[in-house]
Amino acid sequence: MTTTHEWPHLFDAGAPGTPVLLLLHGTGGSEHDLLPLVGRLAPGAGYLAPRGPVQEHGMNRWFRRFGEGVFDVDDVVRRAGELAGFVDWARGHYGIADRPLVAVGFSNGANIALAAALLHPGAVANAVAFSGMYPLEGRTIEADLSGTAVALFNGRSDAMAPIDSVVRVGSILESRGAEVTRNVREGGHGIHPGEIDGAAAWIASTRKVRND
């Protein structure tokens, strides 16, 4: 297990008073992948971009899986805890404890963002999930998520993140008190330009974007 201070990552403080975006790449990506989105999602924002700690055939991931869409849920739980610990460390190390933090994840990164929001709302209370799905099948969610806000962006015909799983994660979040914004477009896996605009508007407008 990589300790938090050894976890490869990029950081930029951004402008005072702006949120810090926790950028979580997809399978096979790196800490550099989502950097081009920062200015479009929240102009002037800071960013914290770690690298997924799991290797799958040479590809970076956030947690293990047994097959396409079949997650090692025990590992999801473990890695979500590690991510929450990394966020807590970074808040102190970089002096951003008073800044709102918004997780922004794509695909596998969206799934770990959702897992962290479900299990560790004190660390990840605000999340934008592009092409994510429910990552904790078979687990009971007991956390109080009344201070959590999540925006889901999905393609209706996404075989990698089936719409029924998307509906499920939204329903579970709401059942625990989270505020959920759902955005479903035609098409499959990926980040559509219109979704970036929608996520930017959500980040700018939601009153839930704050430091918990």
TrEMBL record:
Domain (Phospholipase/carboxylesterase/thioesterase): residue spans on this chain:
15-203
What UniProt keywords apply to this chain's record, in alphabetical order? Hydrolase
Q: Does the keyword DNA-binding apply?
A: no
Name the SUPFAM superfamilies on file: alpha/beta-Hydrolases
Named from the GO MF annotations, one term is:
hydrolase activity
Superkingdom of the source species? Bacteria
- In the UniProt record, the signal sequence range is none
Record InterPro entries: AB_hydrolase_fold, LYPA1-2/EST-like, PLipase/COase/thioEstase
Which PANTHER family would you find in this protein's record? Answer: LYSOPHOSPHOLIPASE-LIKE PROTEIN 1 (PTHR10655:SF17), LYSOPHOSPHOLIPASE-RELATED (PTHR10655)
Family (UniProt): Belongs to the AB hydrolase superfamily. AB hydrolase 2 family.
Protein name stated in the entry: Alpha/beta hydrolase
